[in-house]
Specification:
Number of helices: 19
Largest sheet: 7 strands, mixed
CATH architecture of the largest domain: 3-Layer(aba) Sandwich
Number of domains: 5
Strand order of the largest sheet: 6-2-1-7-8-10-9
Number of strands: 22
CATH class of the largest domain: Alpha Beta
Low-confidence stretches: 270-285, 620-639, 641-650
Structural class: alpha+beta
Shape: rod-shaped
Amino acid sequence: MSDEITLQQLVEDLAGDHGPDLRGYKHTTLERRIRKRMFQLGIGSFRDYLERVRQQPHEPIELLNTVLINVTEFFREPQAWEALRAEALPVLLQALRPGDGFRAWCAGCSSGEEPYSLAILLAEHFGSSANEYDVKIYATDVDEDALNFARRGEYPMERLRRMRPELREKYFTSNSSGLRISREIRRMVIFGRSNIVSDAPISHCQLVMCRNVLIYFDTHSQKQIIARLHYALDPGGVLFLGKAESRLTESRLFRPLDSRWRIFQRHRSDQPESHVEREVIVNTNPTSPEDKLQQELAVTRLYQRAILETIRPAIIALDANDIVVTHNDAALAIWKLSAPKLTGKRLQNTELVLRCPEFPARMLEASRGAGGAPLTFECNPKANGEEHQIAVTIRPVVTESGQRAGTLIYAEDITDRDKLQSTIEQLEATGEELQSANEELETTNEELQSTNEELETTNEELQSTNEELETTNEELQSLNEELENMNEELEERTTELNQLNSRYAETLQSMPWPVVMVDLQEKIQLWNAAAQRVFGVGATSVVGVDVDHLPIDSEVRKTIVRRCRLAMDKGKTSILREQRVRIDYGMDAFDLHFTPVSRSDGGMEGVLIMFGPAEAPRPARSAAGSDGKAERTQAPKPRNPAEKKNRQTQ
């Protein structure tokens, strides 16, 4: 078994596996649509696609949606609908009386625009008395999704672009999703799923619409569908096809009402053929029975001669001995005989036998036949260098007793007829090819229209996306401007902060007292100039060193470490008074101020230690003061250790 299968095998397998039955569709159109679906799925072979259809439950529906080209709208081709309204509906509706029913069938209704258009035409025709008639429009299709869409009766505005504004306002109401058709129109239409090729047709209809459906099927399926449509119509019913469907222009089942817009009427029941009464010419005053008989014989001979000369084919009458009794002039012309008359001559002795040597044998064969059955054959005589084809019929004339009374020879030149028949067959073949090409073009046109609608939808989506991107771009641009403004503000604040930090650092550096900054890891981060002068150690040697390594007495260092930790834990300022510290020029007393430094977020950054001058002790109050106020001794001015060191140096 080959790995690949043909399109025909794929169609047969799909129909056998309860997939979409696509038998009867034109292979060119069907292959193009199936390959489009395969391209969408990235599948290269029919066999692989068949496996996908079997594995994916929803794939048959997707395939059917791809094959079916639902290109339709309300009153598509308005001139055709106007012809239906003006020429067909009056014929169908003129005999209706209130209470009568009217049945119509829209085969291949797609999403419902055409049956609703017909319902609107009928509503306009009946006017306010529409409720007095039992109108039923059966709308069928194989696409269940399209039928569900049609049942809702809601359509976008572009589907109604060919409808007159007054009809749109009269039969539609606006809602959030578009336009909704009125309840009076919806109740006229009954939607149902049906396959026009395999399912039973709707019967006893006065009007059948099957527009732009036949163009998708091959010739055999088209004939089947036309037979079904003919069965569905009552005698005198009207069939409304699409503009590219001309299969009925020469049909014997229908007669055209409007060939341009493909409106046909089913022939009514056969009428009895009219009979032509024969007139008998008689003498109103016959003198005797013999005169009357002679007169009738003469009249009969006149009729015989008139008939012989009127008939275009050659007629030769022979008696029982094959003697020519009579003939018409056409016999001489058709057989190209030079003798002016054949009457009285034996047939075998005439020039006719030279033209057609088969005559003697055929005459004998005809005479042996039973019951005077005619014998027909063809011969090709040559005359004046030209060959003609003549159809000859030999009919023995037999009496009631079965005896041969004579022979009638009927001959007709069919040379031109065969040529004409050949030309007609060629023209019919050419017409069928043109019809097929026209249907193919119409199918392609609908596919292009469907593709155009898809592209328009995609374009609208892209335009919407572009508008969203433009909006997003504007928002980003606005956000960028805000960020730039914030950046400028941050730069200004950074500059201010840098200036503040500079002033802060300059302030710390210019203070006359030693200042030390300790971080949370108990490392020294700041060592101002006064500390360098008092302790005789530069900042580069101290910054980054643990506070436990300060160049002072160990007892004092331990006290400083404890106070730093206490200030960090409690977050409160404390003062350690009268601490004697060995400095570069000797011992001196300091008040150590421990100040916690907080960050902007509320967290602790470290502790600031300032070695300030020790304050003198306050004297006790005097109890003997005359005014009752305590007397204070004047406290000495704080000492600046850096100035003291400078004086000692001098």
